[in-house]
Predict the structure of Exocyst complex component.
Amino acid sequence: MERGKMAEAESLETAAEHERILREIESTDTACIGPTLRSVYDGEEHGRFMEKLETRIRNHDREIEKMCNFHYQGFVDSITELLKVRGEAQKLKNQVTDTNRKLQHEGKELVIAMEELKQCRLQQRNISATVDKLMLCLPVLEMYSKLRDQMKTKRHYPALKTLEHLEHTYLPQVSHYRFCKVMVDNIPKLREEIKDVSMSDLKDFLESIRKHSDKIGETAMKQAQQQRNLDNIVLQQPRIGSKRKSKKDTYIIFDTEIESTSPKSEQDSGILDVEDEEDDEEVPGAQDLVDFSPVYRCLHIYSVLGARETFENYYRKQRRKQARLVLQPPSNMHETLDGYRKYFNQIVGFFVVEDHILHTTQGLVNRAYIDELWEMALSKTIAALRTHSSYCSDPNLVLDLKNLIVLFADTLQVYGFPVNQLFDMLLEIRDQYSETLLKKWAGIFRNILDSDNYSPIPVTSEEVYKKVVGQFPFQDIELEKQPFPKKFPFSEFVPKVYNQIKEFIYACLKFSEDLHLSSTEVDDMIRKSTNLLLTRTLSNSLQNVIKRKNIGLTELVQIIINTTHLEKSCKYLEEFITNITNVLPETVHTTKLYGTTTFKDARHAAEEEIYTNLNQKIDQFLQLADYDWMTGDLDNKASDYLVDLIAFLRSTFAVFTHLPGKVAQTACMSACKHLATSLMQLLLEAEVRQLTLGALQQFNLDVRECEQFARSGPVPGFQEDTLQLAFIDLRQLLDLFIQWDWSTYLADYGQPNCKYLRVNPVTALTLLEKISREMKDTSRKNNMFAQFRKNERDKQKLIDTVAKQLRGLISSHHS
């Protein structure tokens, strides 16, 4: 039972599998049926499967047959209809063939005409296409032709613009044509040609600018000078409510504005020719001298070509080279003012051009580049001026140079260049100017002092008197009351020197103008320079005159009088400086004039020279002294040379009436002391080995003559016997020997009230030995006279005793 159920179950499963395989065979593509059939043969029930397959085939055949039977009548009807249509179709074909034959025959001419029309239309289309292409190419050719024309006429910037339009707008539209390829290949060459030509124009421009920088600078400095003159007129004639324009507005040289995208002009030129203008005509602006179009063209061309940086570097490099050339001064620049002027003109011209380029281009030069160039120029210019100005020995040239430097600085300051260092350098040149002035005035003072007659100025009329007083501040009521003719106490060099000092002050003031100094600084500068003039130049000139070998006492006396009056005039010089500088002398830090010291020193030197000169004259007279120291005779009168010497001294001291009392007294005392000393030296000189008491008596007469001169009061102001004290040493020495008062001398020696207090034991011993030698020599000659022998021996013993005692005094004094 169970087996039967199992067999039935397997039979059902097999049947289901076969059914699946059949459905798969029916639905599967023939190419893929192999695996299905393999699964059948792999099983054990393929027989049963074949049966089922046969059954399924029979079923399908029955279905096909049923379907064919269902549609058969319709198929028959369709065949019948088709047969009917075939006949009609044959008729229609014949009619169409006939109609076609007729149509072909009738349309043959039309076809020929249409063929001709076709050819015409084709030609027309070709012509139209050709015209279109030509219309497309013509602008290219016209632009190229325009480009060549612009190149020929050297209008390079428009040519570059044309080339740009040609390359980017026109050529791309016709790029497939052969001639366009030729143009495209030629475009880089044209660009290079434009660059080269524009660079050549720039080089010509730079060369022209270099050659004509001095003309540009001269123009700018003339305009600056005109503005300064105008400013001075405005300051002298102020107008209420008037507004001054800035200097920059007045000085503008290049006033043509340049657009950054197009050049100034299409004409190539560098420096234009300008005729020399008369002084009263308007000075041409530098825009009348310079055409900057080559720079602008070249800048724009290089900008368009993308090489602006290259152009900027080249321009700056070339201008730096030109700056170094401009800043190199000529070796002989210091010889004339024109040398300095040309040097300044070139520098101004250079920087005026650069300033214009700075303000009319965008970035070709910048402020940093200009400042760098200016710093270099400023240092080199100042160094050159220091070097060359040091060679200038003419103060007028130095003053003109200073004015030129001020104009140079003012001109460049207008363009924004800092010039403080130039004004600082002018202060250095001011010191040099002072030195050149001092050298010049040294010559002036020397000429004045050499040409002076050292005599009081005589005046014969009121007019002459007022003229002298107008030249020199002198007031003397007593002199004014005197009738004409009369004399000023001073000589001509006093008013001349005084006026030259004032001229020197004016010269110093001229240099301080336009230096932007305060009144105090100007006052200080003038006072210091004037002090140098007084303490060095004038003082040296006076000292040289005083120390001259041939100077006379009269001249020295007059110099003392002159310096006294010049010393008194110093306060007027102070007032003169105060008036021109408007700085009161009481102001703090105001320098005082040292004129008083200068003239005092000169006066003291003259006084010393008088003393020296007097002593030299005395020495000259003493050289005429011819004493016979062995004589026994007495002339009872003074020696001739001494009489002449006394007469000379009297006449000399008579001239000293105008000198200050102390000067005359000192001179007189000095002369007497020197005379006494010289006479003492004559008496004690080593060459005189022997002398007699008779010669001593004659020498005593000469000393008495000197004492008589001293008592006569040759110069007023001495007390009773003050002047005689100069001869006290001689007097006591001579009295000691003439009176032979040795006992008193030896007894009182060393006491304050000693009669022979001024007699030195050494001096007494020296003179005593000379007398002793003479007596011994005389004794040997007179041996034949026995009666004199005893007296002489006694006197000789006395002399020996006195000499021994004198030596004792000397020894005790030294011990």
